[in-house]
């Protein structure tokens, strides 16, 4: 790592550059005009030599290896959990400044922009980008708690196929085509037919629920009222949908909540929020029998939300005047 270069125009690597999340990260780096000295795109041998375009220039995808990180200042890991676990198991070193978006790497500092303490950021370290559902739930509940006081909450998360990466999206597409053409469908990523269906995916859902709860405890603190989290797999390609129930200490009206959560005039949908990194608020209903109890629908582009927080983490590190080593 070159510390002087890190603060001006860092050399950046994206590991898993052909993944859905890797492509989203590249797009956001370009859109946000992040200062980059050199961008290196890394993949497994299967995709080595692939040509990718960034900022109008063609770049050749390289094979992941510890030696390839020698001239890298910031490394974003956006590869599949399987590739990340294999890299960890190999004992290979990680770059001095790593931001892990895979949810499958090493334990590190979980950082959520706007809520986590910026003092936890260092010029060197292993930072874990929260699960996109953690980001949405933490920001929403924190905002409500700070304004009205939160007594309890329950959240049902409907997950898109893209949370399983390229393979998940491909399998949903293939199942849909097969069913429409009266062909026998196959499933390798999901536990059964996802097309035109909703799957409980018990093992995968429990892993997701536990991960989100652990990250919420780190981000919001052990004293924060813990929500009940339930996840299920829905047959859409992109965007999380959240059915959230909150019991507040205060008794705001639906209009108050809509204003506090910046609800727009149009009701969102999973398709409609793709390409944005904000949390979109849909219907809000108050419970007349229980003052302070409210049900909300939330929508967020899972890929965009995750990539945005990772880049904001890097921006804080690059732009902060005096971070510790």
Descriptive report:
- The chain has 325 residues and is of the alpha/beta class.
- 31% of the residues lie in helices and 22% in strands.
- The protein has two domains: 3-106, NAD(P)-binding Rossmann-like Domain (Rossmann fold, 3-Layer(aba) Sandwich); 134-301, Dihydrodipicolinate Reductase, domain 2 (2-Layer Sandwich).
- The protein starts with a helix and ends in a 6-residue tail after the last helix.
- Helix 2 packs across helix 8 (302-319), helix 4 packs across helix 6 and helix 4 (132-148) packs across helix 8.
- The strands form three sheets. A seven-stranded parallel beta sheet has the order 5-2-1-6-7-9-8. A five-stranded mixed beta sheet has the order 11-10-12-14-13.
- The model has no long low-confidence stretch (mean pLDDT 93).
- The longest helix is centred in the middle third of the chain and has 19 residues, at 202-220.
- It contains eight helices and 14 strands.
- The radius of gyration is 20 Å and the shape is globular.
Question: Quick gist of this model?
Answer:
The protein has helices at residues 3-6, 20-31, 81-89, 132-148, 165-180, 202-220, 254-260, 302-319, and strands spanning 12-15, 39-43, 51-54, 57-60, 62-63, 74-77, 97-100, 109-110, 125-128, 150-159, 228-233, 240-248, 280-286, 293-300.
Please give the domain count: 2
Topology pattern, helix = H, strand = E: HEHEEEEEHEEEHEHHEEHEEH
- Measured by DSSP, the beta-strand proportion falls in 15-25%
The CATH superfamily label of the largest domain reads Dihydrodipicolinate Reductase, domain 2
- CATH third-tier fold name of the largest domain: Dihydrodipicolinate Reductase, domain 2
CATH second-level architecture of the largest domain? 2-Layer Sandwich
Mean pLDDT score, rounded? Answer: 93
Low-confidence stretches: none
């Amino acid at each position: 790592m070159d510390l002087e270069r890190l603060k001006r125009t860092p050399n950046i690597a994206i590991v898993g550059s052909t993944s859905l999340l890797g492509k989203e990260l590249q797009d956001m780096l370009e859109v946000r005009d992040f200062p980059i000295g050199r961008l290196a795109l890394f993949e497994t041998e299967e995709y080595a030599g692939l040509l990718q375009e960034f900022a109008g220039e063609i770049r050749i995808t390289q094979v992941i290896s510890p030696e390839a990180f020698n001239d890298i200042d910031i490394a974003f890991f956006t590869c599949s959990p399987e590739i990340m676990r294999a890299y960890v198991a190999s004992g290979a070193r990680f770059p001095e400044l790593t931001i892990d978006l895979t949810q499958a790497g090493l334990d590190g500092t979980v950082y959520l922009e706007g809520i986590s303490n910026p003092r936890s950021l260092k010029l060197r370290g292993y930072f874990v980008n929260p699960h996109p559902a953690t980001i949405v739930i933490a920001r929403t509940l924190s905002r409500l708690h700070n304004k009205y006081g939160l007594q309890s909450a329950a959240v049902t998360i409907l997950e898109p196929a893209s949370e399983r990466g390229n393979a998940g999206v491909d399998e949903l597409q293939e199942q849909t085509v097969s069913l429409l053409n009266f062909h026998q469908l196959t499933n390798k990523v999901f536990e059964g037919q996802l097309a035109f269906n909703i799957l409980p995916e018990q093992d995968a859902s429990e892993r997701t629920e536990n991960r989100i709860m652990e990250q919420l405890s780190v981000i919001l603190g052990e004293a924060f009222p813990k929500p009940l989290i339930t996840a299920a797999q829905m047959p859409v390609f992109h965007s999380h949908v959240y059915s959230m129930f909150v019991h507040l200490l205060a008794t705001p009206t639906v209009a108050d909540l809509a204003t506090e959560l910046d609800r727009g005039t149009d009701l969102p949908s999973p398709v409609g929020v793709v390409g944005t990194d904000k949390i979109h608020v849909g219907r809000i209903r108050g419970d007349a029998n229980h003052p302070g109890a409210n049900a909300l629908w939330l929508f967020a582009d899972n890929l965009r939300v995750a990539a945005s927080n990772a880049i904001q983490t890097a921006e804080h590190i690059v732009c902060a005047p005096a971070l510790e080593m």
